[in-house]
Design a protein that fits this description.
alpha/beta, four-stranded parallel beta sheet
Amino acid sequence: MIGIAICTHSDFAKGLKNAIEMIAGEQQDFLDFCFFGDEQLMEYGERIKEGTNQFESCIYVTDLVNATPFNASLIAIAGTENVVLTGASLPLVLELVIRRQGYENKAEDLAREIVESSKEYVELKCSKDIFGE
């Protein structure tokens, strides 16, 4: 099974994990790594890498591109076929959890599919669109 590691600032990762497990039940190979600024980048990256090294493969989900959780996740994927996705959200992680069940392709293939399908749950609604002018 493809592992999922949520790596974000503050308690966002823990909150996403809790929300996912409330909706989809307890998950295997599913970890959160919160970053509070009291760790150096290399320490945080090593903590993530060590925490996920038992996974056959892993998708690391981060909140912001080029921020510390993203950069630490890059440290964790060095020399592997694992991947990093940015833009952590409840719909994105829920889709990962659901679609990874029985998924036989690489983590990269699943991540690419998720990126493509994520366009379906990002919408813009204006008052005039719903209620008229």
